TrEMBL record:
The keyword Transmembrane applies. The chain crosses the membrane at residues 12-33. This is Uncharacterized protein. The keyword Transmembrane applies. Keywords: Membrane, Transmembrane, Transmembrane helix.
Amino acid sequence: MRVHIKSGKIRFVIPCPIAFLKFGLSIAGSSFIQKYIPDKDKRYVNMIDFKKLSKCMDILKEYRGLKLVEVKSRDGSHVTIIV
């Protein structure tokens, strides 16, 4: 997965392997991280099933090149996330 960010004359390409995303999802669902989330936002995080989301990342591997997000703002900034 790659994240492309363009703002004015500055461009970033951030490669993010799917294995790192799955690792991050497993950490985000742990109780260690849950205690640092503000109480008003905990209900939204608790609605997410991180195990199913991790399985979805395996399925996304089959669709390399798929654009998940493409946002262009009026000031010329672009953000694109490609599997």
